[in-house]
């Protein structure tokens, strides 16, 4: 079809596509067809009829013919146009001016970087970055292999290693430095004695020889080595080194396991000491103590057996006679010249002879001699005898065999020349006369009984008495004569005032009323009796009798305790003076002075009161008597009325004549 485009009308279509940046690699372009509505002309065909000659009789040889003819027409049509079209490439979508890749699954921990492609954040993986890295991977998409070792965790993001306890280093490939442990190797090991410390747990791994939580203890006795698991092999009380197990042997033992006693000749710690034993003595391998061979003794076996003994521990007695020497080892006798026999008892010469050929007679006193030397003729005396001829007894102080033994008798005792037995001097007893006679005995063998009396001591020798002070006489039965005292009654008594004197020490026993060492002092005032120890018991007295204690009453007092005044009419010392007061006056017991009865006066109360006064001490004035015979009565002070008057003052006239009162006679003073 032949279109003749006469006019194109473009309708505005998608304007948006035009804003995408063509430079954006994610913008794709394509040709896009689009339809535009146009007014188009076209050759519009139509059927054109015309006539031609033809053989067609019927139509007169005219035939109708058709031909297609065209005319220009216009119509409204759609025209497809093409244009470059920008749009996001497939898999992208527009977002503003940009083309953004589209991930159908949203990238959870990541970014969509291309269609359906997530770029994960480090530590995340999976198509949509939703799964965390496994422990062996890290980084974006968990695409990096973790390098961490020894169980370390790997940071899924950075890949940095988070070491497990006990490790360090970039990749946790190193153990903690010795002495540290734990997370980050931050903890100090507590282990001791060179122990290593488990870097992970801090547990102490003890060096051989140590144990305990901190390896602070040595292996317990009997074990050693690693974990203290090795058994100690040391015998005989040896202790093993806690590390090496090497045995430290106790004294006397040696060898690797202390099983061997010290070699002969050594002893002690490390068998380092030399045995001190002489003469073949064996030494104890532990203590070094010597076990002597026969014939020797002493702590180092340095001494031969003492003379006369032999054998093991010198416990056997030699039996060699006549000067024969006994072997300390075997006890066999080596005889002096002139003797023979196993015990050297056999004289080579007959009895009584000696010398070469046994021709010389022996010079010895036959009774006192044991033997005569067959060669030299020297005499061996019986015990208790001495001298060339054995006719001299032992010198004083010696006795026995050869007079060699010193006497043991004491205190002047005699010693028997043969036996050495003691004959004690008087006053002593006992085997060696060392015991003085017991008190009360004396004489030889202390067999006599003393007869001293009154504490006298008797001489253990002869029984004579030494009297105690105050006694005399052969057997101390006589007391000292009066006036003497002391040893042998040699002192004179010095006691005064009839005091007795102690025969023992001369002390005075004062009689009552006296005092002082020699009883020369009277009792002090107020005391009396023995030792002046009693107090006078008197009321009104000048002390008491120093002997009897009788009170010495003051004047005017009487009674045993001087507590009664003198009886009426008596006064003075011992109330021995009679009173001389008259007219009923009483006298003072002390000085006899008179106290007059009322109405009287004067030293002896012999006068009445002066007129006008009456009563006690004549001290009261009479009342004014009006019609009276005179002043008032000297005793009673009563007015004596004249006849015809009455009343206390005699001033009333009587009705009747009252008889005249006889006046009281006036006593002459
Ligand atoms: C024994 O030997 C050991 C080791 O040689 C030493 O340490 C120790 O001092 C010795 N002891 C004595 C008493 O010699
Ligand atoms: C002992 O005997 C000798 C010789 O017989 C003699 O000379 C001497 O006087 C005597 N001695 C005594 C103390 O008898
Ligand atoms: C002393 O005692 C001894 C032994 O008891 C005896 O033999 C001796 O005759 C006594 N001597 C006197 C003097 O009594
Ligand atoms: C004791 O008195 C007597 C006789 O008066 C006198 O001879 C003697 O010497 C006196 N003795 C003493 C020790 O004073
Ligand atoms: C007297 O005194 C002496 C010495 O002070 C004492 O030993 C004695 O017993 C006394 N006698 C009396 C009766 O108090
Ligand atoms: C008092 O009486 C006593 C005993 O009768 C006598 O010893 C004493 O000398 C008398 N005193 C006077 C001062 O007469």
Automatic annotation (TrEMBL):
Family matches, as SMART domains: EGF, EGF_Lam
Leader sequence residues: 1-19
The Laminin EGF-like domain, residue ranges: 362-405
TM stretches of this protein: none
EGF-like domain mapped to chain residues: 143-173, 181-216, 224-259, 267-302, 310-345, 399-434, 442-477, 571-606
Disulfide-bond pairs as recorded: 163-172, 206-215, 249-258, 292-301, 335-344, 381-390, 424-433, 467-476, 596-605
Subcellular compartments: Cell membrane
Keywords on record: Cell membrane, Disulfide bond, EGF-like domain, Laminin EGF-like domain, Membrane, Repeat, Signal, Transmembrane, Transmembrane helix
Residue ranges of every copy of the EMI domain listed in the record: 24-101
Coiled coil: none
UniProt keyword annotation of Transcription present: no
InterPro entries, alphabetized: EGF (IPR000742), EGF-like_CS (IPR013032), EGF_PEAR1L-like (IPR057138), EMI_domain (IPR011489), LE_dom (IPR002049), MEGF/SIB (IPR052108)
A GO CC term attached to the entry: plasma membrane
Membrane topology: Single-pass membrane protein
Similarity comment: family membership: Belongs to the MEGF family.
Protein name: Multiple epidermal growth factor-like domains protein 11 isoform 8
Organism: Daubentonia madagascariensis (Aye-aye)
């Amino acid at each position: 079809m032949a279109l003749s485009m006469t006019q194109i009308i473009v309708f505005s279509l998608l304007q948006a596509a035009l804003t995408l940046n063509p430079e954006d690699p994610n913008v794709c372009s394509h040709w896009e067809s689009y339809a535009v509505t146009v007014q188009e002309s076209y050759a519009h065909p139509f059927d054109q009829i015309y006539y031609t000659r033809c053989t067609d009789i019927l139509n007169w040889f005219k035939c109708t013919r058709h031909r297609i003819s065209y005319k220009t027409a216009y119509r409204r049509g759609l025209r497809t146009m093409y244009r470059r079209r920008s749009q996001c490439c497939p898999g992208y979508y527009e977002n503003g001016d940009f083309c953004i890749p589209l991930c159908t699954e949203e990238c959870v921990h990541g970014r969509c970087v291309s269609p359906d492609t997530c770029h994960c954040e480090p530590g995340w993986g999976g198509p949509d970055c939703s799964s965390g890295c496994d422990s062996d991977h890290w980084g974006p998409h968990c695409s990096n292999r973790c390098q961490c070792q020894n169980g370390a965790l790997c940071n899924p993001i950075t890949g940095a290693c988070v070491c497990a306890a006990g490790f360090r280093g970039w990749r946790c490939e190193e153990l903690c430095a010795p002495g540290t442990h734990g997370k980050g190797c931050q903890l100090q090991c507590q282990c001791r004695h060179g122990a290593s410390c488990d870097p992970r747990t801090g547990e102490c791994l003890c060096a051989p020889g140590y144990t305990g939580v901190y390896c602070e203890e040595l292996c317990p006795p009997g074990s050693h080595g690693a974990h203290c698991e090795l058994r100690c092999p040391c015998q005989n009380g040896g202790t093993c080194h806690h590390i090496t197990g090497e045995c430290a042997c106790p004294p006397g033992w040696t060898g690797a396991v202390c099983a061997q006693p010290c070699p002969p000749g050594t002893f002690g710690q490390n068998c380092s000491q030399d045995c001190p034993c002489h003469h073949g003595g064996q030494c104890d391998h532990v203590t070094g103590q010597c076990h002597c061979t026969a014939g020797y003794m002493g702590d180092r076996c340095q001494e031969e057996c003492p003379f006369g003994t032999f054998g093991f521990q010198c416990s056997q007695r030699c039996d060699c006679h006549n000067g024969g020497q006994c072997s300390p080892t075997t006890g066999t006798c080596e005889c002096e010249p002139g003797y023979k026999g196993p015990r050297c008892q056999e004289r080579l010469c007959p009895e009584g002879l000696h010398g070469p050929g046994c021709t010389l007679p022996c010079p010895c006193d036959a009774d006192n001699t044991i033997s005569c030397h067959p060669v030299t003729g020297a005499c061996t005396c019986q015990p208790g005898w001495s001298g060339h001829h054995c006719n001299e007894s032992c010198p004083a102080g010696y006795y026995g065999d050869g007079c060699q033994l010193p006497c043991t008798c004491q205190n002047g005792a005699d010693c028997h020349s043969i036996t050495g037995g003691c004959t004690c001097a008087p006053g002593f007893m006992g085997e060696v006369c060392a015991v003085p006679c017991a008190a009360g005995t004396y004489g030889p063998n202390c067999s006599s009984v003393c007869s001293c009396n009154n504490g006298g001591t008797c001489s253990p020798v002869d029984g004579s008495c030494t009297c105690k002070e105050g006694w005399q006489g052969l057997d101390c039965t006589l007391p000292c004569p009066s006036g003497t005292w002391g040893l042998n009654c040699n002192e004179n008594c010095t006691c005064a005032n009839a005091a007795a004197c102690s025969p023992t020490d001369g002390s005075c026993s004062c009689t009552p009323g006296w005092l002082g060492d020699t009883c020369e002092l009277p009792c002090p005032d107020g005391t009396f009796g023995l030792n002046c120890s009693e107090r006078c018991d008197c009321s009104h007295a000048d002390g008491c009798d120093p002997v009897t204690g009788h009170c010495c009453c003051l004047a005017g007092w009487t009674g045993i305790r001087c507590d009664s005044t003198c009886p009426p009419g008596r006064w003075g010392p011992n109330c021995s003076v009679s009173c001389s007061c008259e007219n009923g006056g009483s006298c003072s017991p002390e000085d006899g002075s008179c106290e007059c009865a009322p109405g009287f006066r004067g030293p002896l109360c012999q006068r009445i009161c002066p007129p006008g006064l009456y009563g006690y001490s004549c001290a009261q004035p009479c009342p004014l008597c009006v019609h009276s015979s005179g002043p008032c009565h000297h005793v009673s002070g009563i007015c004596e009325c004249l006849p015809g008057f009455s009343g206390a003052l005699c001033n009333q006239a009587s009705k009747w004549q009252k008889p005249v009162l006889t006046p009281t006679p006036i006593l002459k003073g």
